[in-house]
Amino acid sequence: MINKKDDFKVAKKIIFPGVGAFGPAMERLKQLGFFDLLKDFINSGKPFMGICVGMQFLCEGSEESDGVKGLGLIPASCTRFKADTKAVPHMGWNIAANGSPDSATYINHNKNDTKYYFVHSYGILYNEKSNSNLKEWIYSLTTYKNETFVSSVRKGNVFATQFHPEKSGWAGLKVLKSFLETDVLQGPEFIHFAPLCAFTNRIIACLDVRENDDGDLVVTKGDQYDVREKTETGSIRNMGKPVSLAQQYFNDGADEITFLNITSFRSMPLHDLPMLEVLKKTSEEVFVPLTIGGGIRDLKNPSGDLIPAIDVAREYFRSGADKVSIGSDAVFAAEEFLKSGKVLTGTSSIEQISKVYGNQAVVVSVDPRRVYVSSPIPNHTCIETQFPGPRGEKFCWYQCTVKGGRETRDVDVVQLTQSCEILGCGEILLNCMDKDGTNSGFDLELIKLVKSSVNIPVIASSGAGRVEDFHFAFLEGVEAALAAGIFHRKEVPIFNVKKYLKDLGYSVRFDFD
Ligand code: 1PR
After folding, report:
1. ipTM at complex level
2. Nearest-10 crossing angle of helices 309-318, 349-357
3. 381 lies in some domain
4. What is the pLDDT of residues 462-478, one digit of tens each?
5. In a domain, 380, yes or no
6. Residues 392-445 pLDDT 10s
7. Which residues of 257-292 are buried (b: 16+ CB within 10 A; e: fewer)?
């Protein structure tokens, strides 16, 4: 681990897993005095591997942070994906393809089944004509809908991936192992071709975590957010231990794991965040992206000092989280934003965290519930529903809630998600209080409404009961679908969901390599 400048002298190989936005990452490297030391290390001919921003660092610059210079080794700049026909960031699993059959020294190019985890809005976009000067660098290409980009580079002692091998399951660990164990880095000249898009729809396992009445941290599961047994004791439902369940879902093939600390609306001092330990232990054994939600906001410690949300998030990232999910605080931020006439102040938790860690690191978790009305109302986006309300109302709007659904606010789901996208969130976790725990299928009308309102990825959540439900959600265009109850109760294994989707022709990730 490189902690100080002297560590560069003894390092034999360096892996630089850069995270965050390009500008702040480069600034931080310079502040630490590491920018030039990395340059010297690479020039010395010792093996270097960059990951994500660690790869972009090798470029001349990035559209993400105008005027900030990278190392300039790769003769290219990173540009933003176009959100014309697809969600941005490119967040999920995709292939890294190469036309040379014998070039699989590091990456499994040959089997189009091998998928790696990507999460980025910027990259080295590729087209055959303009990128002829990149020829000697390109090691693999990946296509995301209508754009192809360079997903890894390799030249001399330098190897770098835009995807995250450390989050790409066993396939990714093989990439890291090859880099660590292989000394000869020169390979044959590669044949470049733009591969077909193999972007997968993600299947996410969600673990709602809280203390039970005995003070143990357990995974629980609610019915429309009520997590107590319907018995006389009314104890908290206990579905298992957070770390071991996460391990199980990783082994079962979950593409991502989400932990939600569901009682975090209670005040918590920074040093006592219960999920930090869960994340540390999980990230030692689980090699897919981890999202943590619950209590991501400005906190006060017992002495009354303010701890900004960015510091809270930093603790979680350091403990192994890849994304943080913001619930209640996103609703309050959206209210402020709308009230101010859409002024960006930079002070909301979404803005604080996305500025440093990038949009892709900030998820907004939405807890809406239906409000039925007999005709459309002026201040909220209403839909005509196929499932009329209790008094036959033909319209409804989706009201946002905070504090685990305990309090409703005068913000609808379109206002919330659109505001949060502008504030800098990179993904929407779309729960639905009416559907949660019902096994009756996702609220497809809600999904359609939100999906058509934002350009960022949307995760369908709440209500999954059968493998078919995932297909129906994906037909509405969501990038991912999440379930809890059916996985915890072992009613529908993750494998069955993926097998069903694959048989229907979806691109799906199986990590059997
Ligand atoms: O407000 O930033 O502290 O975040 C709190 C987080 O905790 C929010 O993301 C909120 O959704 C979540 N939360 C709070 N209370 C509950 C509860 O259940 N009492 N869980 C709760 C929300 C919804 C999903 C669930 C899916 C799938 N749970 O996470 O896993 O609905 O369930 P299903 O497949 O069984 O239908 P903050």
Report:
1. 0.98
2. 50
3. no
4. 999 999 999 999 999 99
5. no
6. 999 999 999 999 999 999 999 999 999 999 999 999 999 999 999 999 999 999
7. bbbbbbbbbeebebeebbbbebbebbbeebbbbbbb
| Torsion region of 133: left, alpha or beta (phi above 0 gives left; psi -120 to 50 gives alpha) | alpha
**Ligand 1 pocket, CB under 6 A:** 206, 208, 221-222, 225, 227, 260, 262, 264-265, 293-296, 325-329, 365, 367, 404, 431, 436-437, 461-464, 483-485
Q: To test ligand 1's pocket by mutation, which of 260, 407, 443 has the most ligand atoms within 8 angstroms of CB? A: 260
Domain co-membership, 104 together with 173 = yes
My answer on whether 151 and 276 are in the same domain is: no
* Residues identified as active-site: 52, 164, 166, 208, 367
Query: How many Cα atoms are found within 13 Å in the side-chain-facing hemisphere of 381?
Result: 17
424 marked ligand binding residue: no
> Residue 485 CA: which ligand 1 atom is closest?
35
Task: List, for residues 10-62, the tens digit of each pLDDT value.
Answer: 999 999 998 888 999 999 999 999 999 999 999 999 999 999 999 999 999 99
d(CA 462, CA 384): 21
CA-nearest residue for atom 15, ligand 1, is: 404
Query: Are residues 439 and 492 located together in one domain of the fold?
Result: yes
> Is residue 378 one of the residues assigned to a domain?
no
Whether residues 333 and 216 fall in one domain: yes
User: What's the gap in Å between 462 CA and the centre of ligand 1?
Assistant: 9
147 & 219 share domain: no
Q: How far is the CA of 264 from the centre of ligand 1 (A)?
A: 11
The answer to whether residue 103 sits within a structural domain is yes
CATH code for the domain of 496: 3.20.20.70
Residue 295 assigned to a binding site: yes
Counting the structural domains of the chain, the total is 2
Residue 220 domain boundaries: 202-368+402-503
Give the ligand 1 atom nearest the CA of 366: 11
- Give dist(CA 480, CA 470) in Å, integer: 9
- Domain match, 224 and 118 both: no
Cα angle for residues 122, 146, 418 (degrees, 5° grid): 60
420 is in an annotated binding site: no
Give the position, in ligand 1's atom list, of the atom nearest the Cα of 329.
2
